[in-house]
Amino acid sequence: MKRASLTFMKLAVATAIATCLSAGSASAQSLKATFTLPYEVNWGATVLQPGQYAITFDSIHRPALVRTRTGRGVALLIANSVGPAMKDQPSALLITRTETGRVVRYLNIREADMTFVYKPFTKSERKLIGQVAVTESVPILMAQK
């Protein structure tokens, strides 16, 4: 009798753990998108070469993983902040040219109503942007669920 109740207890505990894990992963928001860079960009501490990439967010509170077309991980990116999507901008990487090259500033995802801020504009840069159009956008394609 002891053996049967011990087996039942193990099964009950395993079921409870599995239920909690599946409920936790179902409530986590996972975002996936692909994009093609036509030129080299600086994104955080990473320099990405021209080519096709995929980006995955397991949670908006964790780093995003950027992979090449072959699946090789090339960057873990942490946003400075996350806010609502910029409705006047497409779902895209918003990139600016600087003296040292191109820099990813924002990842705007209208479908998820989120903007990930990677390198916000300084006050002097905001003034410059008001004078000339220096922002470029690289479209992203959201993965279908």
Share of β-strand residues: 35-45%
Shape: globular
Number of extended strands: 11
Task: Give the spatial strand order of the biggest sheet.
Answer: 6-5-4-1-11-8-9-10-7
Distance between the termini: 47 Å
What is the average of the pLDDT values?
79
Question: How many alpha or pi helices?
Answer: 2
Question: In sequence order, what are the helices and strands, one letter per element?
Answer: HEEEEEEEEEEHE
Structural class: alpha+beta
The figure for the number of domains is 1
Description:
- By secondary structure, the chain is of the alpha+beta class.
- The protein has one domain (30-142).
- The protein has helices spanning 2-27, 123-131; strands at residues 31-37, 41-43, 46-48, 51-57, 64-68, 73-77, 81-83, 92-98, 101-109, 114-117, 135-142.
- The chain has a nine-stranded antiparallel β-sheet with strand order 6-5-4-1-11-8-9-10-7, with no helix packed on it. It has a two-stranded antiparallel sheet with strand order 2-3.
- The longest helix has 26 residues, at 2-27.
- The protein is globular and about 35 Å long.
- Mean pLDDT is 79; it is low at 1-28.
